[in-house]
Design brief:
Number of helices: 3
Number of domains: 1
Pfam family, one: Cu-oxidase_4
Shape: globular
Family: Belongs to the purine nucleoside phosphorylase YfiH/LACC1 family.
Keywords: Metal-binding, Transferase, Zinc
Distance between the termini: 32 Å
Radius of gyration: 14 Å
InterPro entries: Cu_polyphenol_OxRdtase, Cu_polyphenol_OxRdtase_sf, Cytotoxic_necrot_fac-like_cat
Helix content: 10-25%
Number of strands: 6
Order of helices and strands: EEEEHEHEH
Strand content: 5-15%
Organism: Candidatus Segetimicrobium genomatis
Length: 106
């Protein structure tokens, strides 16, 4: 987060190198440990950005944990719950979220 940010993690440089520091948040403890801030995007303007891991979600089976994709067969209710958790961890309204799709080609 940019200096003075109020998000769940803070990646400001400190003596001894960059570190992640958690900030409080209701029901986002496990998820906040899995957010990877995108400081360069946040410095570009009024945007909150982060990359996620698969930790901290409610999906089950093959989609276990923080699946954010509606396509592919995961339960829509689980995906919606995961997206609400992510929005809460970022401190934004779920309807304000915008996503990008990453395609890997070998």
């Amino acid at each position: 987060m940019a200096p003075g940010g109020d998000g769940p993690v803070d990646d400001r440089r400190r003596r001894g190198g960059a570190r992640l520091r958690e900030r409080g948040g209701a029901r986002t403890d496990r998820l906040s440990r899995s957010l990877i801030p995108a400081q360069v995007l946040e410095e570009a303007g009024p945007v909150r950005a982060a990359f996620t891991t698969r930790r901290g979600g409610v999906s089950r089976g093959a989609y276990r944990s923080l699946n954010l994709a509606y396509r592919g067969g995961d339960a829509a209710r689980a995906v919606a719950a995961n997206r609400r958790r992510l929005a809460a961890a970022l401190g934004i309204a779920p309807g304000a979220c915008v996503e990008a799709e990453q395609v890997q080609r070998w």
